[in-house]
Structures are given as structure tokens and as C-alpha cells.
């Protein structure tokens, strides 16, 4: 049995990322103050991973407009991220930081390490400006994620963060009606 990480804080970390042609040092301090997505994937030079990372890259400008930074993370090194970025057209379009986690410390702190393989599950974690985890999505290795749906979920999380007393129903899109939980709604939805 596992304990949910929802509403828990980002754990301290130090890591090196490949970002826009450079190796950069990152810590939890770099993440605080803005909405963030930690996007874990099993490994560089694989099959489903580039389709997901490329999909996120295609939606990155929209996420940036929403004040969201994306951090992809695998147990590969930052050197491997650079090599993959330099040799794959799909990965070459990535402009968000690609964190190397060869020790697995970050991956373990999010609970997505496959210990016997030394790889991460497909885990997505959305955090608010305070570093509190608001959304968790975890997939088995063969199931790719949708960046379009990730954007929608972030929009919903940001909406409820600024609209006290409102909640977003299933498949909610910006501009649609929300709900205000009350005794009057019980049994009427």
C-alpha cells in the first residue's frame, strides 16, 4: 500500500540538467515560485519516451504562457540527454530542462522508481508555486501520456487555486461552468 503524495512538498534535490545546449545545476529552490511539471520517463533512446517528450515539447509554449516550467527526468545522465538531443529530431525540439537522475534519488522521492530495473515509471507530477504536488499521473511503461490532457489538468488546477470554493467537473475546459459544492447540489448532479 502506498501513501499519496498529493499536497506534499517537493523534496530537496540537486541535479544536473541538459538545457538549451548547456549543462545547468538545478535544485528545489529553482522550482519554487512558479507552477512546475516533473515528467518522469524510463530511458533515453527508447520508443514511447520520445513520442511523449516530443508531445510535451509541442505544448511547451502554451505551458510557458500559463506560467509553467517543465522538467523531464530519467535515470540517464545529463550527458546522455545531450547525446539524444543531438541525434533525434523529435528530442532536438525540446527546450525545457532534461534532468539527469543517475542515482535515482529524485525518482525515488516521487515514488516512481522501478528498483529492479533502475528506471522510472511514466510519472507526471504538477506542483503549484509553493512546491505542493497537486496532480499525479502514473502509467505502466507501455502506455504513453497526452500533453493536451496534461495542459487541461494544469488549467483546472490553476483555476481552482485562484477560485476558492469552486471545483472543476470532469472534462472541464477553461470558460466552462464550474461547481460550487454545497448541500443544494447533493444528489442533483
Describe the structure.
By secondary structure, the protein is of the alpha+beta class. It is 30% helix and 24% strand. It is built from 6 helices and 9 strands. Strands 2-1-5-4-3-8-9 form a 7-stranded mixed beta sheet. Strands 6-7 form a two-stranded antiparallel ribbon. β3, α2 and β4 form a beta-alpha-beta unit. The longest helix has 18 residues. The chain is globular. The protein starts with 13 loop residues before the first strand and ends in a 27-residue tail after the last helix. The mean pLDDT is 96.
Write a compact overview of the structure shown.
By secondary structure, this protein is an alpha+beta fold. The chain has helices at residues 28-31, 48-65, 78-87, 89-92, 105-109, 147-162; strands at residues 14-19, 22-27, 35-40, 68-74, 98-100, 113-114, 119-120, 122-127, 133-139.
Amount of helix:
25-40%
Mean pLDDT across all amino acids:
96
- How do the SSEs run, as a string of H and E? EEHEHEHHEHEEEEH
Rg, please?
17 Å
Low-pLDDT ranges: none
Q: Tell me, briefly, the overall form.
A: globular
Percent of sequence in beta strands: 15-25%
The CA-CA distance between the termini, in Å, is 32 Å
Total beta strand runs: 9
Class inferred from helices and paired strands? alpha+beta
Q: What's the tally of helices?
A: 6
The main pleated sheet reads as: 7 strands, mixed
Major sheet strand order: 2-1-5-4-3-8-9
Catalytic activity: a hydroperoxide + NADH + H(+) = an alcohol + NAD(+) + H2O
Function: Thiol-specific peroxidase that catalyzes the reduction of hydrogen peroxide and organic hydroperoxides to water and alcohols, respectively. Plays a role in cell protection against oxidative stress by detoxifying peroxides.
Subcellular location: Cytoplasm
GO molecular function, one term: peroxidase activity
Amino acid at each position: 500500500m502506498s501513501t499519496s503524495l498529493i499536497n506534499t512538498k517537493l523534496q530537496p534535490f540537486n541535479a544536473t540538467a541538459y538545457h538549451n545546449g548547456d549543462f545547468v545545476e538545478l535544485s528545489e529552490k529553482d522550482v519554487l515560485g512558479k507552477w512546475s511539471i516533473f515528467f518522469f520517463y524510463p530511458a533515453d533512446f527508447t520508443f514511447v519516451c520520445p513520442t511523449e517528450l516530443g508531445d510535451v515539447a509541442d505544448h511547451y509554449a502554451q505551458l510557458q504562457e500559463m506560467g509553467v516550467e517543465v522538467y523531464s527526468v530519467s535515470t540517464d545522465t545529463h550527458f546522455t540527454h545531450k547525446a539524444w538531443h543531438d541525434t533525434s529530431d523529435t528530442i532536438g525540439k525540446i527546450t525545457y530542462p532534461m534532468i539527469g537522475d543517475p542515482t535515482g534519488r529524485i525518482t525515488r522521492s516521487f515514488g516512481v522508481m522501478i528498483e529492479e530495473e533502475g528506471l522510472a515509471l511514466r510519472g507526471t507530477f504538477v506542483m503549484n508555486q509553493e512546491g505542493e504536488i497537486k496532480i499525479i499521473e502514473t502509467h505502466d511503461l507501455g502506455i504513453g501520456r497526452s500533453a493536451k490532457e496534461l495542459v487541461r489538468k494544469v488549467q483546472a488546477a490553476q483555476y481552482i487555486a485562484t477560485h476558492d470554493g469552486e471545483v472543476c467537473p470532469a472534462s472541464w475546459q477553461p470558460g466552462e461552468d464550474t461547481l460550487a459544492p454545497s448541500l443544494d447540489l447533493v444528489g442533483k448532479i
